[in-house]
Queue: 3 jobs
Job 1
Amino acid sequence: MACQSSKRAAALECNYACKLNLTLRLTRCAYYKLACHEKGPSRWTAEEDDIIRQHYTAGAGAAFIETLLKNRTLSAIFARADALGVTSGRYWREDEL
């Protein structure tokens, strides 16, 4: 997906350069300075971390948590839970076996 986004951005930069009769380098600088490109993912907030800690450990599925965190994907939720050291309550832990 990042590759598709990069190709789309490059095509837009070339298009603007031709229309404005400017060099591609100058157009690219203006393009990024004006934030015309897609921004990367935002930083996680403390509130989002709390939602993951509360619901993920209680056994709520990532799909449910995704409805609470509108701008986060399933893979982002799984990655953040792993980074926080949070384990899902949906699986047996070693001490429960």
Job 2
Amino acid sequence: MGAPSWAIYEFVCVACGNKYRGHFNTKFCQRDECWSRRAKRKSLTHNFKQDILERDGFACQICGARRNLCVDHIVAIANGGSNDPKNLQTLCRTCNMKKSYKRDWSHLGKTP
């Protein structure tokens, strides 16, 4: 049985490194200077995504698949990443889901 839904956990702020407590990980503590760094971005347009897919040869940059492709942030927006093309890559949905759970891709030869 998992922890109760009302449980309080301790997390580390990605902006300042301070510990904070809460019910879920917001990535940032409640200090104004940290909280203001949260994701403030425009969504990627269809044409912009198409440019990234074209740049990457319409293939997953990890496994080479050519179906079910999406544009992925190498460094997540929540972790300080941006919508800059250098921070975007084409991944298949399978690799994108795996990436959500595993941060170290060095064994696959692809590092963010």
Job 3
Amino acid sequence: MVLQEVIQQAVQDEYIRAAGKYGESFNTYHEAFGVLFEELAEAMQQVEFVKAALLKFMKGLMGKDPAETLNTIFVEAQQHAENAAAEMIQVAAMYKKAGLTGKEHENE
């Protein structure tokens, strides 16, 4: 299975998990917007952490930091990158849920 297929399956799995807990669709498009805004903000926060780790890495290279310091940065960056990926899977799942919200809410 290629990565895109793995991601699509993860989105479907997250949608099913969330739908089981909160319902298959949003009550309104306003609700959908609020949830999407929050999930995207969480993803972007993780991306900012990854960017900060990259800057630390660059500074470490310039300062000839020991490998232990760089490895700490790498572990931190990997964790934040994985968190960002998970948050983006949640964003995609919530867009799927928004798409199922229904035409009755189009003019909200």
